[in-house]
Amino acid sequence: MLRLAVPNKGALSDAAQSMLKEAGYRPRRDSKELVVVDQESGCELFFLRPRDIAVYVGEGTLDAGITGRDMLIDSGAPVEEVMSLGFGASTFRLAAKAGTMRSVKDLDGLRVATSYSGLLEKYLSEQGVDARVIKLDGAVETAIRLGVADAVADVVETGTTLRNVGLEVFGEPILKSEGVLIRQQSAPDTPGMDQLVRRIQGVVHARDFVMMDYDIRVERIDEAIGITPGMEGPTVSPLHREGWVAVRVMVRRKGHQHVMDQLWEIGARAILVTDIYACRL
Ligand SMILES: Nc1ncnc2c1ncn2[C@@H]1O[C@H](COP(=O)(O)OP(=O)(O)OP(=O)(O)O)[C@@H](O)[C@H]1O
Ligand SMILES: O=P(O)(O)OC[C@H]1O[C@H](OP(=O)(O)OP(=O)(O)O)[C@H](O)[C@@H]1O
Ligand SMILES: [Mg+2]
């Protein structure tokens, strides 16, 4: 059985669980269930703290897991990113009292509080900055007001938490993070792992793409295919109406209205867009 780690709490938990449900894995009945055995899929799901997931996978006790890219780098565990999952996007950034700092270099000799000490120490040493890292468990934004640190390094999504305590980001973003599927570095391929990757890839594609159908005059088909090339070329079928064909093609969800405008301009009609429920490409 494939052993898969899933975040049991926090910002990634709900999105990870709905993605796995969509991929056909058995969901847990309630939040107190820590292990789910899904016989049909040949998979055991372990519900763990997102921060611990890279550690388990790195040790090889679990085959794969879902966590954040920031946590994966922070752990320093020997794991690799298999694919990004399109949820849990955030940026890891430096922040300080508004107007007090401009670049990471300003931190030389100062104290920076974070709950991602591995990630921050790596960044500071790459930047050649000698600052003291104060490791805290969470709510690090308060550390400045309480005099424990001169700056913080933390996850920023909307920026609301920072604004609420009068802090402001400075310097370059340290890392763009999102939810990722991970596995142990250089672990051998197994059939269970291939199936997991294909299933999750299918969900990511089904969310990223829509199905587009339209009718167009035969002489405009090359232009139409230029606008909607599809994954492996669109399906073109004859229409009962003389001189017309029907086209069926996958299109990126983002920007699909613009594609419809372009198709309309070259004479396409009956343009329909539908969601893809599931797919395997
Ligand atoms: N507000 C947010 N928006 C989007 N992603 C976030 C947000 N906060 C955290 N994340 C991401 O979610 C992942 C896990 O963070 P989370 O906050 O759930 O864990 P934690 O801080 O260790 O746990 P807890 O907050 O329960 O102490 C990280 O990859 C992080 O980048
Ligand atoms: O930019 P924002 O949208 O405000 O989101 C960022 C906040 O979200 C996370 O906190 P979380 O709720 O996980 O609490 P924690 O600090 O205890 O981990 C993160 O640590 C920031 O504090
Ligand atoms: Mg948190």
UniProtKB/TrEMBL annotation:
Compartments it resides in: Cytoplasm
PROSITE patterns noted in UniProt: ATP_P_PHORIBOSYLTR
One Pfam family it belongs to: HisG_C
Taxonomic superkingdom: Bacteria
Reaction it catalyzes: 1-(5-phospho-beta-D-ribosyl)-ATP + diphosphate = 5-phospho-alpha-D-ribose 1-diphosphate + ATP
Pathway: Amino-acid biosynthesis; L-histidine biosynthesis; L-histidine from 5-phospho-alpha-D-ribose 1-diphosphate: step 1/9
Entry keyword 4Fe-4S: no
EC number: 2.4.2.17
Cofactor requirements of the protein: Mg(2+)
Regulation: Feedback inhibited by histidine.
GO BP annotations listed: L-histidine biosynthetic process
Domain Histidine biosynthesis HisG C-terminal: 206-276
Residue span(s) of domain ATP phosphoribosyltransferase catalytic: 49-202
GO cellular component: cytoplasm
Protein family (similarity comment): Belongs to the ATP phosphoribosyltransferase family. Long subfamily.
Task performed by this protein: Catalyzes the condensation of ATP and 5-phosphoribose 1-diphosphate to form N'-(5'-phosphoribosyl)-ATP (PR-ATP). Has a crucial role in the pathway because the rate of histidine biosynthesis seems to be controlled primarily by regulation of HisG enzymatic activity.
Protein name: ATP phosphoribosyltransferase
Protein source organism: Nonomuraea jiangxiensis
